[in-house]
Write a structure and sequence with these properties.
Distance between the termini: 27 Å
Strand content: 15-25%
Order of helices and strands: EEEHHEHEHEHEHEHEHHHEHHEE
Enzyme class: oxidoreductase
CATH class: Alpha Beta
Low-confidence stretches: none
Pfam family, one: Aldo_ket_red
Protein name: Aldo-keto reductase IolS
Organism: Sulfitobacter dubius
Keywords: Oxidoreductase
CATH superfamily: NADP-dependent oxidoreductase domain
Strand order of the largest sheet: 3-4-5-6-7-8-9-10
Radius of gyration: 20 Å
Shape: globular
Length: 341
């Protein structure tokens, strides 16, 4: 397992993160949506992740209405001091007019709830789960800054922000002199490369780290979805994130070819592609079954050649969009492009 510096912070995180969205009771709110592990299997998955070198675990207040945080806290137990916990706030578990979002009131309330459920007195990475269009960034940043000063939070991150929102949040933090976000958690996969347009350039320019969610596109890149058989996993009940199926099947075929040559699984190659991409700090892997997690963790040992990366890049390429399709201009012997390399 490799460890990477998280953005402009001094924190180092494993290149694989264990995601805990499936940590739920069999009759819980997420059981039918993404599956449910129960406490025994959740603890087993944490054990396997730590044995593989994973040092960071991702959850959220809204996952299974708080049960995910509770299960993670139990699973870590006395090992909590040697690991990193990342959780999130924004979404609500109730219907009050002040429950949703990242107001000072919501932040101060939700952090206390997460701390209690996790059984800890501090959160290593506290992430804003979405951009709040109704609360001024100044209010959100000052409240998060207070949590850091109080010792309840070590670092702050953001999730699901657009490129301009990331840039604005960083600029406002610099202007106010508050804590800056050190990371962005975003969707990225071989069938979902849209963040390469604005988000990756933004975080690389501003010095933020990245956590990648749904790297297998909710199982589409697991190998069981092909033109001949579209599988019956999570996507059968919850077809998200959206996938352009025809191009997606081409990508799966290419993954299968490389996987066969390397005696690896399709999922391992899809994850390894992300681990080789510039701007990726850590990839979040989760599972409903122990065998799935064991397979995913082995992706850290996969090495892809430049030719294999180019093959995967080509089959999964985005269609150019403005201003990306503008020509490259030449000034003397220097090339000027509209896009970051």
């Amino acid at each position: 397992m490799k460890y990477k510096q998280l953005g402009h912070s001094g924190l180092y995180v494993s290149e694989l993160t264990l995601g805990t969205m499936t940590f739920d009771n069999e009759d819980g709110s997420y059981a039918d949506l993404v599956g449910a592990t129960g406490q025994e299997l959740a603890t087993r998955m944490v054990d396997l992740a730590i044995e593989a070198g994973v040092n960071i675990f991702d959850t959220a207040n809204v996952y299974s209405s708080g049960v995910s945080e509770e299960m993670l806290g139990v699973a870590l137990g006395a090992r909590r001091q040697d690991t990193l916990i990342a959780t999130k706030l924004y979404n609500t578990m109730s219907t009050g007019p002040n429950d949703l979002g990242t107001s000072r009131l919501a932040i101060m309330r939700e952090v206390e709830g997460s701390l209690k459920r996790l059984g800890t007195d501090y959160i290593d990475l506290y992430q804003v789960h979405n951009f709040d269009i109704t609360t001024p960034l100044e209010e959100t940043l000052r409240a998060l800054d207070d949590l850091v000063r109080q010792g309840k939070v070590r670092y702050i991150g953001l999730s699901n922000f657009a490129g301009w929102q990331i840039a604005k949040a960083d600029g406002v933090a610099r202007l106010l002199g508050t804590e800056r976000f050190v990371s962005a958690q975003s969707y990225y996969s071989l069938v979902g490369r849209e963040l390469e347009r604005e988000i990756i350039p933004a975080v690389r320019d501003l010095g933020l780290g990245t956590f990648i969610w749904s790297p297998l596109a909710s199982g589409f890149l697991s190998g069981k979805y092909t033109r001949e058989a579209e599988g019956s996993g999570r996507r059968a009940a919850f077809d998200f994130p959206p996938v352009a199926k025809e191009q997606g099947f081409d990508i799966v075929e290419t993954l299968a070819q490389i996987a066969e040559e390397k005696d690896a699984s399709v999922a391992q190659i899809a994850l390894a592609w992300l681990l080789h991409k510039p701007g990726v700090t850590s990839v979040i892997v989760g599972a409903r079954k122990e065998a799935q997690l064991v397979d995913n963790l082995k992706a850290a040992d996969i090495s892809l050649s430049e030719a294999e990366m180019a093959q995967l890049d080509e089959v999964s390429a985005l269609k150019p969009e403005y201003p990306g399709y503008l020509p490259v201009w030449r000034r003397g012997d220097t090339l000027f492009s509209q896009l970051h390399d």
